[in-house]
Amino acid sequence: MSFYILMNLFLTLAWAAFLGSFSPQNLLVGYLLGYIVLFLSRHALPQSKYFEKVPKGIGFMLFFIWELLIASLRVAIDVLSIKHHMRPRVIAYKMNARTQAEIVLLSNLLTLTPGSLSLDVSSDHTVLYVHAIYAEDEEKAINGLQRLENKLLDLLR
Fold this sequence. Notes:
Blueprint: H1 2-19, H2 24-40, H3 50-80, E1 89-94, H4 100-112, E2 116-121, E3 127-132, H5 138-156
C-alpha cells in the first residue's frame, strides 16, 4: 500500500509542478487525478488495499466532521440557553481496539469531540473511561462510542 501512497504523492506533486502552483486546490486536483490514474492502471500494478482504504478514509473524515459539527452545536446551544441539559457521567467503555495506535486514535478522536473526554485506559487495555456531558442514557452514549470505534477500526484494519 505504501507504493501506491508514494506514487499518488508523486503524481500530485508532478501535477502541481506542471501547473507551476502548489496551491491547496492544485494539490487536491492532482491527488484526485493521481488516484484515478492509479485506479485505472491497478491491474498492471501489484495488488493493494489502497483503493478500498482511500474511500473509507474520506468517508470517515466526513463522518467525523459531521459528528464534530453536531457536538459543537449541541454544546453551544446548551451554553447559550438558560436551562442546561447536561447530564455528565463517566462511562467505562469496553473497546474492540487492541493495538496502541487504535486506542490512542480512538481516545484522541473522542477528546477532540466537544462534550466528551477520554480519561484513562484500564491496565489490561480493554476498557476506556470516557467523561461525557450528555450521557443521561448510558446505553445511547455507548452506542455513539461504538459507532465511532467501528468506523475507525474499519478504516485501520
